[in-house]
Amino acid sequence: MILPPPCPAPLGCSSRRELEAQTGSTMGGTQTRVTQLDPDLVERTGFSPEQINNLHKRFQQLSENKETISRESLNRIPALANNPIRSQIIEAFFDKRNQHGSEVGSLEEITFEQFLMVMSHFRPPTVEMTDEEKEAVRREKLRFLFNMHDTNGDGTITLAEYRKVVEELLSKCGTIGQEAAKEITDAAMLEVASTNVPHMGPEDFYEGITFEHFEQILKGLEMESRMHIRFLDTATVHCGKS
Amino acid sequence: MPARMSSRAPAGFCRSLPELGLLLLLVFVLLQGSVFPHGADASADTSHHGGDGCSSTHVKEINRTKKAFPVLSFEYEHIKTPFEVSIWVLFASLMKLGFHLVPRLSSIVPESCLLIVVGLLVGGLSKLIGDTELPKLDSKNFFLVLLPPIILDAGYFLPIRPFMENLGTILMFAVVGTLWNAFFIGSLLFAVCQIPAAGLTHLGLLSCLLFGSIISAVDPVAVLAVFEEIHINELLHILVFGESLLNDAVTVVLYHLFEEFSVFGPVTVLDGFLGVISFLVVALGGVLVGAIYGIVAAFTSRFTSHMRVIEPLFVFVYSYIAYLSAELFHLSGIMALIACGAVMRPYVEANISHKSHTTIKYFLKMWSSVSETLIFILLGVATVGGPHNWNWIFVTATVFLCLVARVMGVVGLTFIINKFRIVKLTTKDQFIVAYGGLRGAIAFSLGFLLEHEDEDMKHIFLTAIITVIFFTVFVQGMTIKPLVELLAVKKKQEAKRSINEEIHIQFLDHLLTGIEDICGHYGHHHWKDKLNRFNRKYVKKCLIAGERSKEPQLIAFYHKLEFKQAIQLVESGAGGKLSSALPSTVSIQNIQPKKPPPAPETRERVLPQLPKAREEEIRKILRSNLQRTRQRLRSYNRHTLVADPFEDGFSDLLKKQKMFELEKKIKEMNNYLSVPAATSDSPTLRRARLASDPQSYNVKPDADGVPTIQVELASPQSPDSVNIVNIVDEVKRDREKDEDMGLTMKPPSAPSKQGAEEDAKDQQKLMRCLSDPGPSADEGEDDPFLP
C-alpha cells in the first residue's frame, strides 16, 4: 500500500484535483493515487471524479493492490462464474482495440487507465448530446460489440466467429444448445446476408458481417441508450460482496 | 368540433354508393330494432299476458275454440335482449368496417372520433323520431362486460421489457401524477365554484375533489385507440399507456374515498392515512390476485395437451375470474387483469399449441376491438340521450384546468424523474406524454355511477366530463398525429424482431450483467439476471410441461421464427427449407465458407475465356456438384440429427461416384475446349485461375485421401490456352472443403495489409493471373478467402 502523498498546496491544485482529493479523502488510503494518475482522466473517459474513485477502489480490490490486472483476477470474480459469455467479456478488457487507439492485438495485463477506458464504453448518453455526438457514441458502442465478436480482428465477423458467439450464449444449455447454435447462426447469417446483399448469385460468397452490415442489422436496437450500466456516483460501493 | 365532424362523416360516405346504401340499411335496421319494442311489447301483451282487454280474451278463445296450431308466432320479447345486443355489435362492427373502406378517411381522423360521431348521429336520429329506448352506456355493463376484453388484450400483449424498464417513470406518472391532477383540478374547481356568477356556490370541496379524481385519470381505451394509429416509439407509447393502466388503482381509491366522505362528513388525518393504506392494498392486492390467477392458469395449461380445443378458454376465463375477484373486494380490477395476463403469458405460450395461441390472439383482438367500438358509439349515443346541465363557467374551467394540470404535472414530474433516468425524457417527449393524456369512457362511467343527492350536480359533472372527453379525443386525438409528424418524434420501427437482434439482445444482457459484476455493484442487470435464473431453474419447471421448460429463450425464439417461416412457406405454396422463405436470392450457399471468394477485381487482366456455351456448361456442372453436397448440409437440422452419422458414410460413397462422373464429363468436354482471350472473366473461372495458383494453394489445408492432380501451369507466353484440369481440380478442392470443413470452418487468417502496397499488389496480381508462381511477398500468406 502506497501511502498517499499529500496534496500540493491549494494554489497548485486545479479545481478538479481538489475535488478528487476531497472525495478521495473521505475514503481514505489509496484514492489520492487516482489524482496522481492522469489529471485529464476525467476528460478522456468522461467519468466523474467520484466514479473514477469508485472504479479505482474496485480495481485495487480485483488486482489485490497491484498496478495491473490480469485475466486470472477477473476470472476469479464469483458473480461472473455463471455468465455464459464470461471469457468474451474478460477478453474485451484485454483487447487493444477497445482502448480508443488504433492498435490491435491483446494485452496481458491492463492498468487502471486501460480498465477505465474499457469501462467508458458503458457510460450512458447524456441529454445534452447533439445528434452527431449520439451517432458517434452509438458507433463507438457498436464497435465495441463488433470487436467482441470479431475475435481475430480482420474486420469481418465470419460464420465461424458468429457461431462461437451463439455457442457461448447457449453454453449453459448442454448439447441441445450446441446443436441449435449451428442452426441459429446459419439462419442469422443468412438474414444478414439477405438484408445487406439482397441479390447474390449462386456463386457469390458472403464472407462475413462487416461493421457497416453490423450497424445495419442492429439499427433497431438503439444501442446508444441501451448499452449502458449505472456507474455509482456516491462513495458507497458494495465491494465487499465479491 | 362535433358539428364539423358530423358534417364530414356523411360526406365521406357519399363518395361511394355501396357504403351509403350500407349505412342507410343499417340505420334502418337499427331503428327497426329500437322502434320495434313498443309494437312487440304491445303484441306480446295482447297475445299472452293480457288479461284486462277483451281483445286478448277474444284471441284466446278463438285459439281455444279453433284449436288451430299457430304455424307462425311472433314473440319479440323472448329474444329482445340478445337480439338487440347482437344488432348493436353487428352495427358497431359494420361501422368499423365501413371506415376502412372509405379511402383516406381513417388516415385523417382517428377511428374513435368517427365512432363517437356515429353514436351522436344514431342518438340524434332516434331523438328526432322520438324514441328514447336506446341503450345507455350502462356503468355496470361497461365495467363488467365491455372493459375487461380491452384490458386483457392490453395486459396479455403488454411489452414486458420496456414496461419493466420504465416502471419507475410509469408509476411516478400514474400515482403521483394522477394524485396531483385530482387535487389540483378539484381544489381549483372549488375555487371557481365560489365565484357567485357561476351559481355553484353550493358545491362542496369534497364534491369537487371527487369530480377531480374522476376526471384526472388518463383512459386506457382512448389512449390505445389513438396511440395504435400514430405508431409512436416504444418508450412514449409505454409511458402513456402504462400510466393509463396503472392509474386505475389511484382512481379507484380516490373515488371511493371521496364518495365516502362527501356523503359522510369531514375527513380526518386518520382517514388520509387509511387512504394511503387503502391505495397500497388496492394496487398490490389487485396485482397479487392477478398474479395468483395467472400462475394457476399457467399451471392448468400444463395439462391441456390432450384437450387442445379448450386451451384458449382457460386464458379468458381465468383472467375474467381474476378481474371479478378483484372487483369483489374493490381492488383494482384493471391491475389484476394486467398482472394476470402478463404473468401467464410466457408459460401458457410455451404449453399451448400454436393454433391455440393464434386463437387466443385473434379472440382477444376481436373482442377488444368490438368492445372499443361499442364503447365509443355508446358514448356518442349517451351524449345525445343523457340529461345535461351546461354550465359555461364550470365546463370551461374544467377543460382548462385539465390541460394545465396535465402539463404542469408532466413537466414537474419529468424534472424529478430525469434526475434518475439514464435515457432522459426530452421536451418533445414531455409534450407528447402531456398531450397524450386522453380521457375516456371510464371517467364517463364513473361519473354515471355517482350517487349524489343532488341530481342537478350529477348532470353538471356528467356534462363537464363529456366535454373533456370530447375535447381530448377530438382535438388532441386528431391533432396528435400531425404534431408527431411536425415535431419529428421518433416513430416505432415496424419491422419484426430479427434473429440477429435477438442474439444481440441476449448478448448485451449478459454483457451488461458481466460488466456490472466486474464493477462490483449490483444494479438492475444483476438482479434481472438473478430473477431470470430463478425463473429458469424453478418456475419454468413447475409451469411448463415437458422439454420446453429447459429450452433457453434464444432457441425458443428461433423455433418460433422457424415455425412462422415454415407456415409462410406452406401458405405461399412453395416447398423447401427455411432459407428460401427469405425474400431474396441469397441462399445458404452464399454464407457457407466452402469455396474461395471471387478473386480481387483486376482490370488489366488478360485472361483466357471459354466460349459462352461451354462456360455455361462447366459452370452448371460445378454448381450442381457443389449444391448437391450442400443440400446435405442444409438438411442438417434437428429433425434429421439422428440420421447424421449414417449420412456421412453415405455421402462418401456419393462423393466418389460424383467425382467419377464429373471427370468423365470434363474429359469429354476437353476436346472442345479452345479458348480465345477475353477482357473479362467469370467468377468461376477467376476462382479456377486462382485455385491453380500454387501460391494460394499452399495456405489451404490439403486434404488427404484424394488424388491431387498436378496442374500444368499455362505459360505466360500463351495466355490463351487454359487447362481444364484446373477446373477439375478446383471442383475437387471445393468439394474437399465441403466435406472436410462442413459447417466448422477454420477462422480466416490475418487480414491483408492493403493500402500502401496497392501498386505492388496489382503488379503481382497481373503476374499471377498469367499463372506465374507469384513472388512470395506478403501476399503469399494472404488468404485467398479475402478479396
Automatic annotation (TrEMBL), chain A:
<dbReference type="InterPro" id="IPR052490">
    <property type="entry name" value="CHP3"/>
</dbReference>
<comment type="similarity">
    <text>Belongs to the calcineurin regulatory subunit family. CHP subfamily.</text>
</comment>
<dbReference type="GO" id="GO:0005509">
    <property type="term" value="F:calcium ion binding"/>
</dbReference>
<dbReference type="InterPro" id="IPR018247">
    <property type="entry name" value="EF_Hand_1_Ca_BS"/>
</dbReference>
<dbReference type="Pfam" id="PF13405">
    <property type="entry name" value="EF-hand_6"/>
</dbReference>
<dbReference type="InterPro" id="IPR002048">
    <property type="entry name" value="EF_hand_dom"/>
</dbReference>
<dbReference type="GO" id="GO:0030027">
    <property type="term" value="C:lamellipodium"/>
</dbReference>
<keyword id="KW-0963">Cytoplasm</keyword>
<keyword id="KW-0472">Membrane</keyword>
<protein>
    <recommendedName>
        <fullName>Calcineurin B homologous protein 3</fullName>
    </recommendedName>
</protein>
<keyword id="KW-0106">Calcium</keyword>
<dbReference type="GO" id="GO:0005737">
    <property type="term" value="C:cytoplasm"/>
</dbReference>
<dbReference type="GO" id="GO:0030154">
    <property type="term" value="P:cell differentiation"/>
</dbReference>
<keyword id="KW-0539">Nucleus</keyword>
<dbReference type="GO" id="GO:0032587">
    <property type="term" value="C:ruffle membrane"/>
</dbReference>
<feature type="domain" description="EF-hand">
    <location>
        <begin position="137"/>
        <end position="172"/>
    </location>
</feature>
<keyword id="KW-0221">Differentiation</keyword>
<keyword id="KW-0966">Cell projection</keyword>
<dbReference type="InterPro" id="IPR011992">
    <property type="entry name" value="EF-hand-dom_pair"/>
</dbReference>
<keyword id="KW-0519">Myristate</keyword>
<dbReference type="GO" id="GO:0004860">
    <property type="term" value="F:protein kinase inhibitor activity"/>
</dbReference>
<keyword id="KW-0449">Lipoprotein</keyword>
TrEMBL record, chain B:
<feature type="signal peptide">
    <location>
        <begin position="1"/>
        <end position="33"/>
    </location>
</feature>
<comment type="similarity">
    <text>Belongs to the monovalent cation:proton antiporter 1 (CPA1) transporter (TC 2.A.36) family.</text>
</comment>
<feature type="compositionally biased region" description="Basic and acidic residues">
    <location>
        <begin position="729"/>
        <end position="740"/>
    </location>
</feature>
<keyword id="KW-0832">Ubl conjugation</keyword>
<feature type="region of interest" description="Disordered">
    <location>
        <begin position="729"/>
        <end position="787"/>
    </location>
</feature>
<keyword id="KW-0732">Signal</keyword>
<keyword id="KW-0472">Membrane</keyword>
<keyword id="KW-0050">Antiport</keyword>
<keyword id="KW-0406">Ion transport</keyword>
<dbReference type="InterPro" id="IPR006153">
    <property type="entry name" value="Cation/H_exchanger_TM"/>
</dbReference>
<feature type="compositionally biased region" description="Basic and acidic residues">
    <location>
        <begin position="755"/>
        <end position="765"/>
    </location>
</feature>
<dbReference type="InterPro" id="IPR018422">
    <property type="entry name" value="Cation/H_exchanger_CPA1"/>
</dbReference>
<feature type="transmembrane region" description="Helical">
    <location>
        <begin position="460"/>
        <end position="484"/>
    </location>
</feature>
<keyword id="KW-1133">Transmembrane helix</keyword>
<dbReference type="Pfam" id="PF16644">
    <property type="entry name" value="NEXCaM_BD"/>
</dbReference>
<keyword id="KW-0325">Glycoprotein</keyword>
<dbReference type="InterPro" id="IPR032103">
    <property type="entry name" value="NHE_CaM-bd"/>
</dbReference>
<feature type="coiled-coil region">
    <location>
        <begin position="612"/>
        <end position="639"/>
    </location>
</feature>
<feature type="transmembrane region" description="Helical">
    <location>
        <begin position="203"/>
        <end position="226"/>
    </location>
</feature>
<feature type="transmembrane region" description="Helical">
    <location>
        <begin position="238"/>
        <end position="258"/>
    </location>
</feature>
<keyword id="KW-0813">Transport</keyword>
<keyword id="KW-0915">Sodium</keyword>
